[in-house]
Amino acid sequence: MKRALLVYFLQVFIPASVLFCGIFYIFSNQTQKYELQTIKIREESALKSASALTSTLFKQKLSDLLVLAEGEIMRKYLHNDNIQTWTQVTREFSLLARRKPKYVQIRLMDIDGKEVVRVNNKNEEPNIVPKSQLQDKSDRYYFKEAITFSQGEIYISPLDLNMEQGVIEEPIVPTIRFATPVYDGYGTNRGILIINYTPAELLEKIEDIFNTLAGETIMLNNDGYWLMGVDDENLWGFMYGSEETFSSEQPEVWKAIENNKSGSVTTDSGLYIFQRAYPLNRAGLGSVENIQLRPDADQPKRQDLYWIYVSYISKDRLNDLSSIPIHISTIIYLLQFITIGLISGVFAKKAVKKKFASIKLQQHATTDELTGLSNRRELQKTAEMEFKRAYRFNRDYSILMIDLDNFKEINDSYGHSIGDEVLKHNASICLNSTRTEDLLARYGGEEFVMLLPETNIEGARQLAERICQDVREQPFDSGRGPIAITVSIGVSEIDPDDISYSNILERADSALYQAKREGRNRVVTV
Fold first, then answer.
1. Sign of the CA dihedral 444, 447, 453, 456?
2. Which residue among 446, 447, 493, 506 is the active-site one?
3. Sign of dihedral through CA atoms 96, 98, 103, 109?
4. How far apart are CA 179 and CA 378, in angstroms?
5. What global pTM score does this model have?
6. Active site residue 170
7. Of 165, 330, 483, 507, which has the most beta carbons under 10 Å away?
8. Which backbone phi and psi does 278 adopt, to 5 degrees?
9. Cα-based distances in Å from 59 to 92, 281, 354, 407
10. Between the CA atoms of 162, 168, 169 and 172, what dihedral angle is there, to the nearest 10 degrees?
């Protein structure tokens, strides 16, 4: 224990001493640079959180889209588009819109881009648009792109403003369109399903994250137009024909953004930190119902849109954030260095106590107290693991069920203390016959189980015969004379129809009882 205490102390004290000496050196010579790096890390972490939030919030939307597109009601309508099935589809769209008030429109378009079903959802009141008012959307960019997708693929439009009859809706409604092709049971593309989603909840959550940042933060689309973080007159410029963009104002920064998913750029005016956010995170779609990953799922597609989150920290702001007085830093870290020895000693003492307690607890949890063999809990865990490996790779796997004959008579004649010694004696004999990869465990009472990976039933039978002979030829010396011992052994191996190791064990147990019935001191295989 003393040696372990010293080792733990040195393991903590030496690295901690080196670490704090290094930190002290950095703070003494490069305080401002260190603080700048810390600021960058915090900003990058927050921007990554905003990016991760974007993908997370979209997962449910994508699931809703596919549930509608692949549901039974949609399938019935595509097979027979009569008034009854049309009504069922509109009712299903209306129910979803009522449950999801941020779905401002749910539409089904045919292969030519004409609306077939449309439900508007304003003020949380779904409204089914009459057939006479349905529109032709074949010239819209989202239809032209989505109709080229394969079954099960998802199209997400850029974040823009909703338009009605070619005019931007007022007040403005920021909108994202989720679309996927709909196929009938014969594999024919019958059109696309589109959900118009106003991402107010997403933009609010992103704004909350932005408010925690040190810099002035903006949100851009992949063409460099502002979506959030500037005055209203500069927002949504691409919808109003404006040529003023972030890319035109900051070409050096925009060049880095175009070539990297994340990073930072230092300019004469300050520091820019940026992070792309992909609403359609293909690497995470495995958790969305019905979506199948492709081998290249972690690679963005050419048509995948993204947004850019940018945090700008001016030079003056950087100086304010990193201007920690050096003498204060020195005092703090000197105090930490002085106390590190005491802390290391306390930590080492607790770690040693915990280590020894853990060893004892582990031994108690996995070992039979009397024989020192694995207990039944450890047997079950190991046996199931070996079963899965053997089943998966089609390997041999056998089990021996060993029982001492007439053990009750030994207890009655010599007492339980002698009986315990007989059990340990028998365990030692069996253990001498095991290989490294085998496991011998006490199953309960006078019963033992031996797991034999990579062993067929013939090899297991031969081993069982040898154990039976060894036990018979090595009686236990009780001090009052030898006590003859014999064992009965049941042998079984894995079968293709087995679903767990318990099936093998049950057959071995049946074979054991057969050995008992046939006179004991023998081996029976099944």
1. negative
2. 446
3. positive
4. 52
5. 0.51
6. no
7. 507
8. -100, 110
9. 20, 9, 43, 63
10. 80
Tokens representing 434 are: 């095991």
Integer angstrom CA distances of residue 138 from 66, 104, 183: 22, 20, 18
Q: How far apart are CA 406 and CA 400, in angstroms?
A: 19
- Max Cα-Cα span within the chain: 107
Per-position pLDDT tens, the chain of length 526: 677 777 777 777 778 777 777 776 666 666 667 777 788 888 888 888 888 887 777 777 888 888 899 889 999 999 998 999 999 999 999 999 999 888 999 999 999 999 999 999 887 789 999 999 999 999 988 899 999 998 888 888 888 888 877 788 888 888 888 999 999 888 899 999 999 998 888 888 888 888 888 889 999 998 899 998 888 888 989 888 888 999 999 999 999 999 999 999 999 999 999 998 887 655 444 434 444 444 444 444 444 678 899 999 988 887 777 665 556 666 766 777 677 777 777 777 787 777 776 766 665 678 888 888 999 888 999 999 999 999 999 999 999 999 999 999 999 888 999 999 999 999 999 999 888 899 999 998 899 999 999 999 999 999 999 999 999 999 999 887 899 999 999 999 999 999 999 999 999 999 999 999 999 999 999 8
Sign, Cα dihedral of 262, 267, 272, 273: positive
Structure tokens, 176:
């994202």
Tokens of 283: 């690497």
Nearest to 253 by CA among 236, 273, 232, 234: 273
DSSP string over 215-261: SEEEEEETTS-EEESS-GGGBTGGGTT----HHHH-HHHHHHHHH-S
How many angstroms separate the first and last alpha carbons of the chain? 51
- Dihedral (CA of 161, 163, 167, 170) sign: negative
